[in-house]
């Protein structure tokens, strides 16, 4: 038997895009020399996505469907996909055809050459607006400056891992607050990148808005960097220095002109100092929130039903843990 490639597709309210996605992807998968399985992860869609997926699964036994009990988010869907895939190579992609399936043969060629991780890098993103592009560039600048691991700019959730790398992700990267793309880039192994042009979404609309992206960015920074925690130390040093200078100044005026007045200075300084203090307490609070979430160890996802998925698949899934 030839090698097996698992294509993992996260689906959330994509009923308008699924048919076209399936047709295009299947055409490409059928031509491969590799065996394939096409694993759709339905992330609690509220529309007709699940019944469409079930139809695909009924027609083609290589189509497998995992369906979550509710919406757990894109990353949870990809993690479930990794857990349930059995391929020698696992490719994660979106269901909206923004990640063109035409690149699958090229990815597999890289795998055959011996690469273990293939990161797909966007060269152009037609559908993203100006604001999204600027914030995305800014985000990568900040995260690269703050953390000791390096991130590829414009990396996408379109990537492929081999069996060994997938095993590491399954076993050791089960964090609740996480950035999967970052993990893929930082577990090492032989890796390469392929550039691709992101197409426009075929149908439906983006599930990420700026507010979600902001929350996502903050989490990522806290996941990969302890630098914000050190702000407290720096703020302490700065205040001590400021205090010392003001003390010298006060002594000087006291000797020269007598007791100094300075109501305004006091009020401004107190407000300023408290602002810094509360900010730092807030940052510590955010880290504690992450600790608490990890400690509770709630499942990353809950599978409600499956189609064409064998019993032995997903041994490492959340239910068993
Ligand atoms: N998605 C998901 N769960 C979510 C949000 C999105 O599984 O909670 C899927 C969605 O169906 C799509 C992919 O993740 O296949 C990327 O989402 P989207 O296209 O909305 O993001 P964008 O491409 O705009 O960044
Ligand atoms: Mg998309």
Description of the structure:
The protein is α/β, with parallel strands linked by helices. Helices cover 50% and strands 18% of the residues. The protein contains 10 helices and 8 strands. The protein has helices at residues 15-30, 49-59, 74-84, 104-112, 130-146, 163-172, 180-186, 210-224, 227-257, 263-296; strands spanning 4-11, 35-42, 63-68, 89-94, 117-125, 155-162, 191-198, 303-307. An 8-stranded mixed beta sheet has the order 7-5-6-4-1-2-3-8, with helices on both faces. α2 links the parallel β2 (35-42) and β3. α1 (15-30) runs parallel beside α2 (49-59). It is elongated, with a radius of gyration of 25 Å. The relative contact order is 0.15. The model has no long low-confidence stretch (mean pLDDT 85). The protein binds uridine-5'-diphosphate and magnesium ion. Magnesium ion binds next to loops.
């Amino acid at each position: 038997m030839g090698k097996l490639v698992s294509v993992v597709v996260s689906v959330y309210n994509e009923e308008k895009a699924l048919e076209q996605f399936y047709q295009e992807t299947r055409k490409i998968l059928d031509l491969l020399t590799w065996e394939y399985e096409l694993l759709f992860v339905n992330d609690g869609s509220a529309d007709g996505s699940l019944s469409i997926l079930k139809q695909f699964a009924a027609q083609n036994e290589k189509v497998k469907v995992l369906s979550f009990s509710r919406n757990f988010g894109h990353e949870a869907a990809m993690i479930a996909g990794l857990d349930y895939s059995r391929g020698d190579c696992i490719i994660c992609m979106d269901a909206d055809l923004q990640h063109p399936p035409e690149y699958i043969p090229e990815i597999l060629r890289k795998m055959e050459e011996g690469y273990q991780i293939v990161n797909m890098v966007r060269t152009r993103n037609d559908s993203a607006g100006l604001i999204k592009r600027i914030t995305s560039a800014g985000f990568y600048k900040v995260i690269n400056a703050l953390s000791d691991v390096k991130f590829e700019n414009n990396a996408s959730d379109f990537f492929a891992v081999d069996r060994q790398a997938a095993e590491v992700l399954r076993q050791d990267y089960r964090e609740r607050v996480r950035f999967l793309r970052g993990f893929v880039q930082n577990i090492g192994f032989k890796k390469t990148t392929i550039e691709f042009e992101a197409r426009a979404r075929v149908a439906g609309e983006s599930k990420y808005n700026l507010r979600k992206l902001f929350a996502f960015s903050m989490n990522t920074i806290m996941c990969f960097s302890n630098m914000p925690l050190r702000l407290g130390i720096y703020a302490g040093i700065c205040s001590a220095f400021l205090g010392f200078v003001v003390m010298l100044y006060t002594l000087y005026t006291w000797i020269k002109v007598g007791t100094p007045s300075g109501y305004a200075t006091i009020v401004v300084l107190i407000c300023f100092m408290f602002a810094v203090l509360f900010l730092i307490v807030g940052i510590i609070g955010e880290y504690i929130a992450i600790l608490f979430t990890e400690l509770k160890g709630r499942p990353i996802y809950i599978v409600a039903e499956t189609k064409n998925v064998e019993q032995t698949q997903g041994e490492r899934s959340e239910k068993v843990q």
